[in-house]
Amino acid sequence: YFYTCAAGGVLACGLTHYALTPLDMLKCRMQVNKSLYNGVFDGFKKVASAEGLKGLYLGGAPTLLGYSLQGLGKYGFYEYFKYLYGDAVGEEAASKYKTVLYLSASASAEFIADIMLCPMEALKVKIQTSTTPFATSFLGGIRKINAAEGINGFYKGLAPLWLRQIPYTMVKFATFEKTVEAIYKHLLSKPKDQYTKTEQLGVTFGAGYFAGIFCAIVSHPADTLVSKLNNVAKTEGESTGAIAIRILKDLGFAGVWTGLTPRIFMIGTLTALQWFIYDSFKVQTGLPTTGGAAAPKKE
């Protein structure tokens, strides 16, 4: 069961993040230099005109690899920790405190998933936001970061990534699960198991988009910080925390919200598609869709 969920997570996160690479690239560039484009459509037009389709998918390789690894950890470990914590407290307490179970399981899973993602996220941001081509190849980019900064170059954004992704994932999973429950309880007239798999997947998509809007808002300041952190020169002896404080002071309150509109659209669409792909994969392997009913017990 857990391996199947992990495989579904690879497909859900890897494919969706890769498909939305152009929007993510523009968002990162606008966070690093907000005067670069006059909005998303202006950015698309300028990049497509100057660099073509290849320019729009700049950073696609680390995006695909990094978020496939993250999806494996995010979904696989979420289901594992949900089972583990639920088993530890007992069926009655797990049922009574479902939201706490969703939040704790998703936070634990994302902690691990981000360690898997962080090196590729660092490479992706550098490739997408450098004013001159960062590297001529995927491996060339890895060698360049390693030569300049060593292992720290790949993980200096880990703490801000946790600050971005852990609240994001807690909102993503808890809001999704509670929304699915609410839809079946209050908006639909029959129990979940009386609807077809196609109808259940429709509920999955709608709940996923609703959850994604909240995810984008909660995690955006940390997302801006991650984008800036991977493009700011580090002075000798300056810690990552000190750099982060310096960046936040320079940005100000308004600055950390730069790029929120495209990110709401991106994350809403992304989250809906991720849940849809994930649940579709589960259905194809004979498992039920997520939420609205008890998950299968581990055999």
Structure summary, number of beta strands: 0
N-to-C span: 8 Å
| Morphology | globular
* Continuous helix count: 12
Q: Mean pLDDT score, rounded? A: 88
Strand content: under 5%
Helix-strand sequence: HHHHHHHHHHHH
* Unreliable residue runs: 294-299
Structural write-up:
The relative contact order is 0.14. The protein is globular. 79% of the residues lie in helices and 0% in strands. It has helices at residues 2-19, 21-32, 40-56, 60-89, 91-96, 98-129, 138-149, 152-155, 158-187, 197-229, 240-255, 260-284. The chain is mainly alpha-helical. Helix 1 packs antiparallel against helix 4, helix 4 (60-89) packs antiparallel against helix 6 (98-129) and helix 9 (158-187) packs antiparallel against helix 10. The chain is built from twelve helices and no strands.
List keywords for this structure.
mainly alpha, disordered C terminus, about 300 residues
Topology of this protein?
Layout: H1 2-19, H2 21-32, H3 40-56, H4 60-89, H5 91-96, H6 98-129, H7 138-149, H8 152-155, H9 158-187, H10 197-229, H11 240-255, H12 260-284
Helix pairs in contact: 1-4, 1-12, 2-3, 4-6, 6-9, 9-10, 10-11, 10-12
Describe the structure in brief.
The protein is mostly helical and 299 residues long. Helices cover 79% and strands 0% of the residues.
